[in-house]
Amino acid sequence: MNPDTERALEPADDQATAPRKDAARSPLDGARGDREAVEGPEPAGRGPTAETATLEFRVHPLVPRLWFWQSLVFPSALGAVAATSLLAAGHAALGALAMAAAGAAAWAATRHARAYAERLRLYLLPDGLLVRRGVWWRAEIFVPRARVQHTDVSQGPLGRHFGVATLKVFTAASHAGVISVEGLDRTDAVAVRDRLLGRGDPDAV
Amino acid sequence: MPSDAAGPGLDAPGGEAAERRLHPLSWLFVLVTQLRQMLIPLVALLLFSRGDRWELLGLVSAGLIALYAFFYSIGFRYRLGRDEISVREGVLGRTERHVPYARIQNIVQERHVLHRLFGVTELRLESAGGARPEAVMNVITVGEAARIEAILRGRDTGLDAGAAAAPGIPLLALSPGEVVRLGLVTNRGLVVVGAAFALLTQFDLWDPRALVRAGRGVGTRIGTWTPAAASPPETAVLAAAGVIVLVALLKVLSVAVAFVGFNGFRLWRDGERLRTESGLLTRHTASARRDKVQRIRLGESWLSRRLGRQWLSCDVAAGVQGQDAAEGTRLRWLVPLGTPDTAARVLAEVAPGLDIHARHWRRLHPGARRRRFVAALVPWTLASAASAALLGRWALLAWAVAVSWAWFGARGWARFAAYAIDEETLAVRAGWHRREWTAARLARGQVVVLRESPFDRRHGTANVELDTAGAGGGLRLEAPYVPVDEARALVARLRAGIPAA
After folding, report:
1. Which residues of B touch A168 (CB under 8 A)?
2. What pTM was estimated for this model as a whole?
3. Ranges B210-219, B265-274, B410-419: which has the least confidence
4. Yes or no, beta carbons of B454 and A47 under 8 Å apart
5. What is the chain B residue with the closest CA to A41?
């Protein structure tokens, strides 16, 4: 493993390796009071945990923009290749059509990516983890703390640069055995992982 | 030798001191296991190769594998300790593995024809999860396997080691008549047909044009029939006759397959442990603890209802998934086929409290029927439109048939589909001509998922699923088309039902 990755994945206290040192954003570090007791994801009185404190996490602030550009790349590249090859072959009308289609696809993809990033929520509840995500097809996935087998926090090269990480939570479930939450702040991802595993906070659970 | 050792179980408090070896003929079985993946290529090589260089290569590699098998089985040692079983294996690199008894959740025995000839068996010890068995003893005598199983069973349940030796009267013994019925209601023969086609295409032994020629030949012999100049009634009669013959052949094949897999199927309950045994040529034995049963599945098809039969199976969390999850190696079938009374009786023994029928069933949202119909309508309409180029006016008929099928399907499905929840269990039922029920204890839930599609949001409904471990397939434990408020309340109940830590 790349030593850089290793360091970045440590649950260590020093944030020197992470370029963004924005500890106050994380509800778990330092400014704990201002984020605690966020209203639960369930309307009051419904869930067994409605009265207890819930920690809410969103994606890293750069992620909507990051995903916007990422989702732009593929349709644009495909459209450009299709349009130039059609134009070179002398089908001007078809080339224009391909360009228009690629533009529409890029527009839809970027809108979707931004909306997905802005809607994504992760809640750390006393009894487990709740992930809310999706734009058209929405899902709320609840993973009981007792069912978590192990967790992964991983970062790609881009993610390492921006301090963005993916949290994966593994259970023995047959269909939703791996719950993968992308675009989290690395500090948040590590904090959620430690809390889920009952580490770093003696009164967790 | 393992067969020399007598005695019911643990002799000394510290476990057995002596290391044991495999059966002296083990190398043969290791060889067969190793060659199994290579068998078809090897046979093909010998049969169809024209040059002798490839044959030589095949022989050399087979010889190397035989050498490996010999040294592997000579060097294999295992020891039953006080709390764990230790295994030493390997030819060049030796590995020593210690498996605590507490981790072993499933004991699988597999006996092929060759095993039965020599009175030996392959014993596999599996833990929960994991990509492969914790220990494979390939092969030991049947008596030794029974001894190991008795020791493990004693350890697992805390019973004394001697008591578990006799399996007693089975909960269920499948009669040959039931096996025939099982073949009739299932289409397992299709697997054989598929495999045969795959094999033939693999070696270019058949030519699709030959089939067409054969069809033409049959056609001209029957009459003046040719695909181009046939009148629709004649074509219809011929097609119907052809379908009947094919279905009959398929059913005969399915009965044969059912006999291979399920002949002499028996299910025992021995304290907390369940054990099944089945198979005509290869005898599969699987066992699991009763509290490892995650989910219960009950099913019936149109034909099985006519025969007054149902089937009952379960998911067990332990066991190896993937390549070894073949039919019979894991405890899966509880009642391959039996009367509803038999299924209910076995269910009460295997999973008390999971009774599927005596429940307060809640219907789904009233819009479910129309939404199911539309969901089926769209692909059928597209397919019919696409087939119009080929079928012409007949595409309209095909479309009409598909639409009525979809309409009846949606109506039947919505009439039957429902869910039921109580303090301890969640049950779901769905289907039309083929009906399925599934149920699990809330405490078995791994993940709770609430899903909303755009259509769900428009109709104010949601889908709630309780995901459990080891689900092999079939009906998922989910309640679709549930009004959203009800769905949220359901999620809260499911969440509360999963124990903390």
Report:
1. none
2. 0.72
3. B210-219
4. no
5. B488
